[in-house]
Amino acid sequence: MTDRPGEGAQHSYGRRAGRHLLRWYPAGYRERYGEELGALIDDELAARPHSVRIRLDVARAGLGERARAGALAGSGAGPDDRARAYALVVLCGWALCTAAGAALAKYAEHWDAGLSWPAKRWSEAGFDVMSVAALIGGAAVVAAGLVCVGPLLAWWRGGGLRAQRRPLVAALVASALWLTFFGLVAGSNGVAPGTTPQGGLHWLGVAFVVCGLAALACVTRAGVAVARRLTIDRRRLRLLVGLATVVGAAMTLVLGGAALWWVALPAPGKGAIVLGPVLRVGSTSVDAVVIAVLLAMA
Known about the structure:
mainly alpha; 76% helix
């Protein structure tokens, strides 16, 4: 019996789409159940090749399995696994907060130069809280890295580098690209990073920001991949949980300080003070940008 016209193409499309959808699941789950699950997804997509609901259901289930594999959900994880997962989630949050905070710090350069308004002291207080909290959070992250030096060396001697080569290489390549664009921006004939002499975004600045975000994401991904495979004793794990709590509190203070700083700024001058010289936009657009940054910090 021959297939109806187009039926073979639908099955082929279903198999290709099914392989891509399986990537929502963690590697261990794919190795154990990938063949059966892939066949089920193929059959569903062959019958309804353009179904958004199938894709959403697979993504939801796959993310759920990733959460359980990472000790973020379910009852199968032990206290040590949950403590490690907590510290890694805080690390990822700190990476996002760092990206948002760096953008806010860049746009807020010389924000109070030559200006005065009744609530200026509140803006100054918010900015100071944000700056001090960022330093405390950064110091706690560095301290956590020092706590992991011993387990990291043991992982290195045990040949762990070979198993995690891909994320580490990606982190090195992304960091090298970012440093390259940093050098190009720094040497661009005295032009301020990210801007042209006439105002507006310079392509070097855009590339610098994009590569910086990519490097931060790749370094964080590599750090999480390595940290999940370190053998960490309970004493070190307790220290890491305590430092993660400090980082979480620092992120909360950074968010609160940034919000206080922004709210206390004079409304008519927000665009000119912060982003106006760079993006040439009005106060309403600036409010939207800053709100998005604060949400990213949260």
